[in-house]
Every structure is written in C-alpha cells, then in structure tokens.
Amino acid sequence: MKKSEVPQDKSNFKDLYYAVDDEGNYVTATSSGWDPKKIALDNAMRDIGERTEKARIRVVEGKTSPIEYFMEMHKMDPNILSSYVGIWKWRVKRHFKPSIFRKLSLITLKKYADVFDVSIDQLKSITK
Amino acid sequence: MELSFTHHQAAHCENGVVSNLMKHNGFEVSEPMVFGIGGGLIFLYIPFLMVNHAPSFTYRIMPGHIFKNFAKRVGIKIKREKFKNPKQAQVRLDENLQNNNPVGLQVGVFNLIYFPDEFRFHFNAHNLVVYGKEGGNYLISDPVMESVTSLTEKELEKVRFAKGVFAPKGHIYYPTGFPEELKLETAIVKGIKQVCNQMLGVLPVLGVRGIRYTANLIRKWPEKKGIKKANHYLGQIVRMQEEIGTGGGGFRYIYAAFLQESSKVLNNEKLAELSKEMTVIGDMWRDFALDASRIYKNRSSKDDVYNDVADQLLIIADKEEKIFKKLKKAIA
C-alpha cells in the first residue's frame, strides 16, 4: 500500500499503518478509519444488540433468567461468565433456568451482580 | 511520580511495548524489527477458540511470544511475573515505578475504558506500559493510542485481572539486563527462519495450508451454517485481519517493513525485493477484506460470491508459499 492510499474513512479510532512512500521506503501513516473494517465492527456490534434483545424477550416470556440477558449485554458467553463469577459453567447454565434462578442464594446473586456491575435488585428487576 | 518515558504510537501493542521499552533503555529498535525478530507472522485457524460466537483466525503468534523470542535472540534478559493476588500485583508494580522502571503489562481489553465500545471485546492479550503514578492514578502509555492516558487503581486492577482465555493474571514484564551491543544479524536470520517454518508448516490449519483450509471453509459456510452465520464468520476473518494493531493487511505490511530494514542490516538485496513482493501480498489481503465486506454489507445470498473470495484466498496462499520458499533460500 502506498502512503497516499492509506484510507481516511470515518471511524472512532485512529490507527497506525505501515505504507510505502514515493521512494519505496516503508514509513508509518495514521488512518482515520477504513469502511470495510468499520462495517465488520458495526455488524459485530449489531449482532450483540440482537442477541441481547432476544435474551430480554426470553426473560419476559419466562424462558430464561436475567443472567443470560446480562451475559449477552456484556458480550460474554457461558465460558467467560463462568470464569468471571468463579462458578462452573454447567452451574452457570443451570442458573439460566427461571425456576433455579428464583431459588439462588443472596451470595450467588451478589457474585453475578458484582460482575455485571449492577445491584441485586437490578439483576432481578428485569423480569418485572 | 512520573518517569521520563517517551510515548511512540505503534501499529501493534506487543511490538510497540517492546520497542518503546527498548528505546527507553537507549536502544533504537523499530517496531517491525521487534515483530520480525520475534517471528510474529503466522496464519492459524483455531476452530475451538470461539471469540464473540465465531471461530478464531489469527495472523500473529501467541501473545507474549514475540517479546520472549525477541529477548532470547538479541540477548536481553527479561523478568516476567504473574500473580494470584491483585494486591500483590499492585505492590510489585508500585515497587518498579519507585525504582524508576517503566514496565509492560498484559491486560484485557473489555474494561479498558479509553477504547471505543466496538473494540472492547473479551480479548485478553493487549499490552501497555505503565510509566508513573500521580495522585493515585497510573500513567499509561498504550502503544496503539496516539497519546498517553491514565487509569485509576481500580480500573487498572480490573484489566490486569480480566478473566477468560489468556487471562493476564496481573502479568508484568520488563527487561533487566542488556548486552553491550545488540547482535541484530543472527537474530534476524533466526526470526525469518521461524516465520518460514510457521508459514510452510505441515499442520492443515497452519500457514499457507491454513489459508487454503479457510478458503474451503468459506465455500461451505453458506450451505452448512446459513447466510447469517457465514457472514458473521467472514466478518470475523476481516476483523482479526484488520484489527487495531495489525498495521493493515494482517501484519503483512509490518513484515514487509521488517524485510526492507533487514536488507540494509544484512546487506542482502534479495530481502529488499521480497519486501516489495510482501507489500503486494498485503494489498491482496486488503482486496480480500474489501470484497468480503461487500458480501456482508449487501447480505448477498448467491453462492458464487463466497467462492469468489475463497478463490482470492487460494491465490494469496500460492503467492505466500512462493515468497516464504524464496525467503528461506535468501537467508540460507
């Protein structure tokens, strides 16, 4: 890529490229963004938005617990959530069941609430 | 207290940290040089490592290994430590700052508040330098940022103890001893050999074979996974290739810059020629990303568009096979 071809599309981040100047020497150049990359990032974000919204609807319908909703919102999957709360994955998945979620102890709820940075009330209130 | 540390923006975090720490200690080593000597370039498909609900494709070796290889090859001594206890990790960091020693840290990106939201995934192999502490805030030189920034004690602890794959566990590292003069020549040759072996390796998911394997996957995705997932996976390839820190074209441009610099150090004209070829390959990766982005932008459902980008990857694989064979000969 020539230095003059370093893309200057719009994005939220300026990053550094290595490109060739007129004499053929490698130099660095700042790029304000590149559309193909931005589209890929936007798609990924929209995908997370869709997953979160689907989880929210499932919570309202009583098909899953708020834990799954907050997990999607924080871009996590059961593996990552499990390592953050320090609870085995099969137990985390079990906590997705509304009937199990209702019976969770305050200590366990606190663990989830801390990871999601919300209060225990907020963790529960999405069902209302 | 603030240590005298000069921030230079880099394309890639790990190279940038190493290059900046070397410069701080009086050795002018460029970012491409660190990347090349560290043997950073690779292509690897990791089906079982799901990142953001899609398999991973990486264009660089395992986090931390660029620094490790670089240090070993140029003969600097490094100290690296991980911690179970966050408090202890902070004590060790503060000790180093007291001793006037800026250090490198491995951190998770998800809670790194100065990044825009769309970059904040659960990716734990980011690197930055801490070069001081002022009023309870740590002074941060993040190589991919244009300028320096700062984080509170709590914010820094959160990113140092991010969880999940490659959990940093407070990982702290810094050089402790230097040779009188860096012997770049032998180090460069070793670094190039490693990359040639990686790219021409026998594993089906590694190097040029890995690129061909990926091309075949792309052909099958629309039918096997459905259009939505196929596009999501294709987006994953592009994101990992053009992520902040790659310098564009899946590190191919940084590598070309390394070959150009090395041709002068080794007085080897062939490397300068191969640098030009590598630039062309970088351009081809960019074209691939551009065409792939058209697919997931338009959500086109025709099968042949997937075949088109797959064909592009096959051509890239052939070109890379040739160039790394030539590179192997050029330094033999």
Summary, kept brief:
The complex is a heterodimer of chains A (128) and B (332). Helices cover 55% and strands 9% of the residues of chain A. Chain A is mainly α.
Report on this model:
The complex is a heterodimer of chains A (128) and B (332). Chain A has seven helices and two strands. By secondary structure, chain A is mainly α. Chain A has two domains: 3-33, no CATH class; 47-125, Orthogonal Bundle (434 Repressor (Amino-terminal Domain)), CATH 1.10.260. A two-stranded antiparallel ribbon of chain A has the order 1-2. In chain A, a hairpin with a 5-residue loop joins strand 1 and strand 2 (26-31). In chain A, helix 1 (35-60) packs antiparallel against helix 2. Chain A is elongated and about 70 Å long. The N and C termini of chain A lie far apart (55 Å). With 332 residues, chain B is of the alpha+beta class. Chain B folds into two domains: 13-37 and 77-177, Cathepsin B, Chain A, CATH 3.90.70; 184-330, no CATH class. In chain B, 52% of the residues lie in helices and 16% in strands. Chain B is built from eleven helices and eight strands. Chain B has helices spanning 13-24, 31-37, 65-74, 86-98, 153-160, 184-199, 207-225, 227-242, 252-265, 269-298, 303-330; strands at 41-51, 54-60, 77-81, 103-107, 126-134, 137-141, 149-152, 172-177. A six-stranded antiparallel sheet of chain B has the order 3-8-4-5-6-7, with helices on both faces. Chain B has a two-stranded antiparallel sheet with strand order 1-2. In chain B, a hairpin with a 7-residue loop joins strand 6 and strand 7 (149-152). In chain B, helix 2 (31-37) crosses helix 9, helix 7 (207-225) runs antiparallel to helix 11 (303-330) and helix 9 packs antiparallel against helix 10 (269-298). The longest helix of chain B has 30 residues, at 269-298. Chain B is globular, with a radius of gyration of 20 Å. Chain B starts with 12 loop residues before the first helix and ends with a helix. The mean pLDDT of chain B is 93. Classes of the chains: A mainly alpha (128), B alpha+beta (332). At the A-B interface, strand 1, strand 2, helix 1 and helix 3 of A face helix 8, helix 9 and helix 10 of B.
